[in-house]
Amino acid sequence: MEKIIIGLAGRLASGKGRVSKELIEKHGAFRVRSSDPLRATLDMFGVPQSRDNLSALSTFLRTTFGEGTINYYMEKVIAESHEPIALFDGMRIKAQLDHFRKFPNFRLVFIDARQETRYQRYITRNENPGDAEMSYADFLKRDNLEPEQQIESLRQFADFVIDNNGTQEQLDAQIETVLKNLISA
Amino acid sequence: MPAILGLAGMMACGKNTAAGYLVAHFEAATIDYSEALYETLERFGISKNRVNTQNLSTFLRNAYGENVFERAMIKKINANAAPLIILSGIHRESDIAAIKKFPQFHLLYIETPAPLRYQWYILRAKSAEDAAMSYEEFMQRDMAETQTQIETLRLQANTVIENIGTREEFYRKISEVVAGIL
Question: Which residues, in sequence order, are CB contacts of B133 under 8 Å at separation 6+?
């Protein structure tokens, strides 16, 4: 069976990580995060992997060397993996999507959740240093920034939209449906 | 506790020649300050040319602090089991601000007259562009900011070796320094 490449897009704390976990643990997916090469670089230099530091590096690379820099890493890692599903966690901009559309087995999955739900999840999980202390007002500010709006604009191009406002069971059921669809295609 | 030999000097003064010799004749490992830069460029499929390397270097120092390269070096030193570690590619004081305080660190400055360095630079040139460089252009590069900081390192060096004789003499001098710190 040809390798399926799934691109996940979703707003801050929409549940991409949860969907990834399900795909990896139950469906043999291999996950590649767009932040992986950024984290590896910061780690090499002993720089804390805060959202700001990751963002600064990402912006520098993209503006200096072009949008293709993160894609290069992603493609290489996906090509070298052995799993049946390659999972790209963190589609952010149209240019990335256009790049992945070159692969016939690529599908874009958009994960949807309401703002309030996402805020609660954001402060609870505290993924990066400083996240747990963020106020709702600050969260909204961040949620309205350009990078988040760009993610929002990917929704219209999605092959599947998953509604993550409900329970884990409801989420899992939708994932099953998407996969059935993909594998039988 | 490994002995750490830092190598500093102007362009094409013989640092890599020294490191190569030491690795072949002693139980030594080389760690170059550019390594972290090259690894980063490679990870993102970016061409490892001079312009890209400098842009990335400038960004990293501005965004994460002047000692960002030193931190990467300390990590690599701690992860390496060799009894002698050669630190190559030291350009400025901030590259070794903390490392120079390690008791086992020895800074070796290699001094070579510019005309001789120019000759070696052309001889080892890997690109047509480099091979065609004029002496004037070479001297201009020498005067660039990072190179000027290298003079400061010369003043701070534990040992200064003049590399003006034969290769064998150069090797002998380096061996003496290393024998003294091992």
Answer: B121, B122, B125
Host H or E run for residue A42: helix A36-44
List the strands of the sheet with B84-88, edge to edge. B28-32, B84-88, B3-8, B105-111, B159-162
Q: How many contacts (CB atoms, under 8 Å) link A and B?
A: 50
Which residues are paired to B159 by β-bridges? B108
User: How far is the C-alpha of B40 from the C-alpha of A38, rounded, in Å?
Assistant: 9
pTM over 0.80: no
Share of chain B above pLDDT 90, in %: 77
pLDDT in tens, A19-77: 999 999 999 999 888 789 999 999 999 999 998 999 999 999 999 998 788 888 888 88
> Which chain A residues touch B69 with a CB distance below 8 Å?
45
User: Which residue is it, tokens 């086992």?
Assistant: B104
CA-based nearest residue to B42, from A185, A31, A76, A26: A76
**Residue A181 pLDDT:** 87
- How distant is the Cα of B84 from the closest Cα of chain A, in angstroms? 22
pLDDT band with cut points at 50, 70 and 90 for residue B145: low
8 Å CB contact of B44 and A73 = yes
Contact (CB<8Å) B74/A46: yes
B9 Ramachandran zone, left/alpha/beta (phi>0; psi -120 to 50): left
Q: Is A33 exposed, middle or buried (0-12, 13-18, 19+ CB in 10 A)?
A: middle
Q: Do B69 and A76 touch (CB under 8 A)?
A: no
* Cα of A142 vs its chain's centroid, Å: 17
